[in-house]
Design a protein that fits this description.
The chain is α+β, with helices and mostly antiparallel strands. Helix content is about 25%, strand content about 25%.
């Protein structure tokens, strides 16, 4: 693990992100000592740095554990794999499980077996069991009101589900909006689709962004300060013009300092459910 972290420290993380699909922000946290890669990411990084075409260290015992965890009755699993129980038992005893069996287990049973990843022909490294199924949607929420304290583990969560919408195909992920500060543009309970902005110079004043800083996560419309882009902060503005009894705006504008921004995503749209 330490060797992988050292290699990341000496690498261009944007290049690694482009090649592996592992988010820059996640790797940045690792090199800063905030957690370690999960087994899937670790295997991808090993394959990337070693330049090997595949990693398959799955033993029959590991395969058996993964199967039984989901299918206590192995005859049911064998049937789905097109095998008889005796054939499956033989695989459990092997020192190494073959590629085709692992792929069948994933595509037919939806079983993830640790220790197996591949590099696709085009050179893009992907874990076999993390093939894109659409846009990943996360259950943690993107605050649209006031401030949500930063949860350092939020971006490491597994997706709650995936969606496939052509208009948002270039988005990195989606999160649920909660709070009413961005009403009527984005209603509380709708899912917003986010696309990463890699350079603060790409910010378009007046657009809505999801911002993660060292102390908050929030969805706001960004504007420049008085000095334009040269200013040291953006103005985070709300769309909801509701007023307090004293006449002031309930959701007031506040500054977000550029040096505090850890991740920035433009909100390209939202999905709303009207009825259960």
């Amino acid at each position: 693990m330490e060797e992988i972290i050292k290699k990341l420290i000496n690498s261009d993380l944007k290049t690694v992100e482009a090649a592996t699909g592992i988010p820059y922000d996640r790797m940045y946290k690792w090199i800063k000592g905030k957690g370690n890669p999960k087994i899937e990411d670790y295997n991808i990084l090993v394959a990337y740095f070693d330049g090997s075409s595949s990693i398959n260290n799955v033993t029959g015992k590991q395969f058996k554990t993964a199967i039984i965890e989901k299918y206590p009755d192995i005859s049911e699993a064998a049937k789905e794999l097109g095998l008889n129980p005796e054939e499956l038992l033989k695989i459990f005893k092997k020192a190494k499980v073959t590629e085709n069996v692992l792929e069948e287990a994933y595509y037919k049973l939806g079983i993830v077996v640790e220790g197996h990843s591949v590099i696709k022909p085009e050179g893009i490294v992907r874990n076999l069991y993390s093939e894109p199924k659409g846009i990943p949607m996360y259950s943690d929420k993107a605050a649209a009101s006031a401030v949500e304290l930063y949860n350092d583990e939020a971006s490491d969560q597994e997706p709650a589900f995936f969606v496939s919408i052509p208009q948002f195909a270039d988005c990195d992920f989606g999160k649920m909006i909660f709070g009413h500060s961005m009403y009527p543009t984005y209603e509380s309970g709708s899912y917003a689709f986010m696309k990463r902005v890699g350079d603060l110079r790409q910010v378009s004043p007046g657009e809505v962004y999801y911002i993660e800083t060292t102390y908050l996560k929030v969805t706001k419309r960004l504007q420049y300060g008085k000095l334009g882009f040269e200013d040291d902060h953006f103005l985070a503005m709300s769309d909801n013009e509701e007023k307090r009894p004293d006449g002031g705006f309930r959701y007031e504008t506040f500054p977000i300092f550029k040096e505090d921004i850890k991740a920035l995503y433009i909100v390209k749209g939202a999905l709303k459910q009207n009825q259960n």
